[in-house]
Write a structure and sequence with these properties.
The chain is mostly beta strands. It has one domain: Trefoil (Acidic Fibroblast Growth Factor, subunit A), CATH 2.80.10.50. Helix content is 6%, strand content 38%. It contains two helices and 13 strands; from the N terminus they run αβββββββαββββββ. Its main location: secreted.
Length: 181
């Protein structure tokens, strides 16, 4: 009888991005040549789409192409918390956590090349998310390094921009993931 393939948890999948602790330089890559690409979707099966430079979550029946998310590590912060940069594939922009004029925490796409953030991670907390597997090994969450306790989230409604919310809020803060490269 064939054994069932083990699906890696988020923590297992991104662990080798943080090889700094590897004693053997043969195992440890010195730099990532390009970001990893992931497809992300929330618990309500809403996927991420790029609409007029805004990431929105919508059901897959949308006519828009799915947006893959580029991921690279931020090795300037505590690697045990798996800090990462995230941005739309093939775009010169990254997710950034900002405080709006009315004091609300939110996500913006800022013009920053993810490779530039990776190469020079100083003063990049606003672009960094602490990533971890959720209790359910199939899902993960992304906590803002800039605003601890606030997580990347999707609205319960379709076609709404992604945002930041706290765990106790009604928004979805857990994501399924599938590595594409």
């Amino acid at each position: 009888m064939a054994s069932k393939l083990h699906k890696k948890t988020w923590d297992e999948d991104v662990a080798d991005l943080f090889h700094d602790s590897e004693p053997d330089p043969e195992i440890r890559p010195s730099v990532e040549a390009s970001p990893r690409l992931y497809k992300l979707w929330d618990l309500n099966q809403k996927y991420l789409f790029l609409v007029e430079n805004t990431l929105v979550a919508d059901v897959k029946t949308s006519n828009l192409p799915e947006q893959l998310i580029a991921v690279l590590p931020n090795k300037a912060l505590d690697t045990a918390q798996k800090p990462i940069f995230m941005g739309p594939e093939n775009k010169k922009s990254c997710l950034s956590c900002v405080k709006s004029g009315n004091g609300q925490y939110q996500i913006e796409l800022k013009e920053k090349d993810i490779m530039d953030l990776y190469r020079d991670p100083k003063n990049t907390k606003a672009f960094t998310f602490y990533s971890k597997s959720a209790d359910n090994a199939d899902t993960c969450s992304f906590e803002s390094a800039e605003f601890p306790g606030w997580f990347l989230s999707t609205s319960l409604e379709a076609k709404k921009p992604i945002g930041l919310s706290q765990k106790e809020g009604p928004q979805n803060i857990l994501f399924y993931f599938e590595r594409k490269s």
